[in-house]
Amino acid sequence: MAGDNDLYIGIDLGTFRSVLTSSAGHEEEVLTVVGTPKDPIARNMLGKDVLFGEEALKNRLALNLYRPLEHGVIKDTAEDKKFIAHFINHLISLADPEEYDNVVAVIGAPAEASFTDQTAIFDAASGSVNAAMIISEPFAVAYALDMIGHTIVIDIGAGTCDIARVYGTIPGPDDQMHTSFAGDHIDKALIEAVQKKYSGAQITKDMARRWKQQFSFVRTAMPDQPVVVDFSIEGKAMALDITDCIQTACESIVDPIVANVKKLVASSNPEFHNEFRSNMILAGGGSGITGLNIMIEDKLADIGDCTVHVVDDPVMLGALGGLRLSMEVPTDMWSSLTLASR
């Protein structure tokens, strides 16, 4: 149980957005972006050496922008480690850790984060907390849902889709799969599809991301009305139908997900195949694609009847799992768990 001078923190460290929740009631969402002024003039105008999240994006023309987890990993350079440290310390600072005697954090990271990644994350957090543990994001999701027994978690983020086999303990390397067919891939595929359909279409990645977030679907849940959006073609304002483009882009991630799920089921203990097939969780931002769980179930039909559950709160769930774990792991286990996570 948390004492008056104890602060427990759960963090979902995402490639696009990171989330923090705490035992003191903090709930924070920050875009995983770091910005530094381009020159002394920009520094004087902004009054800061480092900016984060929405503030960094708002002032991006005056900044050098960095996405420290853009592809789900941290580059093994001093500069990239510096930026992830800046970001993690900023995120933890939002929970006012200096007001507590003991601060414990569980940080969810991409499923296939390397030893270098985990060490960089751990070292960054160590300056702000008394104890830290790094776990895979899919495990944090399963823990939050009380579904850590014989479950397959499909966690679709921006830069990565992490798929993990969970069976009562922290997944090992053989229990996890990792693919770049995720949110950023959909954005890129959507831009390409629209530009192929409408020659000269002028679209930014942010525009594609907004359309995806508002309209995404796959063939098992076709919309009642066409998806019509505004954009420019060679500078001329247009309102055009991109329904087929949205569908094509969203479905581009399905086959890699299905292939990896099949591998994890096939390589598990055969006595538990039925349980894995009936306990699949679709989480992360990509879980919001309408009809995606049904399409995955249909494509898994050749291995048996599968059930894919869609989570209710994909944004906060990973951080909530980390928070719960931080509060439930006995104090005398933190040392060994922390070392194991590294």
Q: What is the CATH level 1 assignment of the largest domain?
A: Alpha Beta
What's the story with the biggest beta sheet? 5 strands, mixed
The assigned structural class equals: alpha/beta
Topology as H/E string? Answer: EEEEHEHEHEHEHEEEHEHEEHHHEHEHH
Radius of gyration computed on alpha carbons: 21 Å
**Approximate helicity band:** 25-40%
Q: In angstroms, what separates the terminal alpha carbons?
A: 25 Å
| Shape, per Cα inertia axes | flat
Observed structural traits:
disordered C terminus, 342 residues, 13 helices, five-stranded mixed sheet, flat, single chain, Nucleotidyltransferase, domain 5, alpha/beta
Structure description:
By secondary structure, the protein is α/β, with parallel strands linked by helices. It folds into three domains: 6-142 and 316-341, Nucleotidyltransferase, domain 5, CATH 3.30.420.40; 146-181 and 253-310, 2-Layer Sandwich (Nucleotidyltransferase, domain 5), CATH 3.30.420.40; 183-251, ATPase, nucleotide binding domain (Nucleotidyltransferase, domain 5, 2-Layer Sandwich), CATH 3.30.420.40. The chain has 13 helices and 16 strands. The strands form four sheets. Strands 3-2-1-7-8 form a five-stranded mixed β-sheet. Helix 6 crosses helix 7 and helix 6 runs antiparallel to helix 8. It is flat. Residues 335-342 have low confidence and may be disordered.
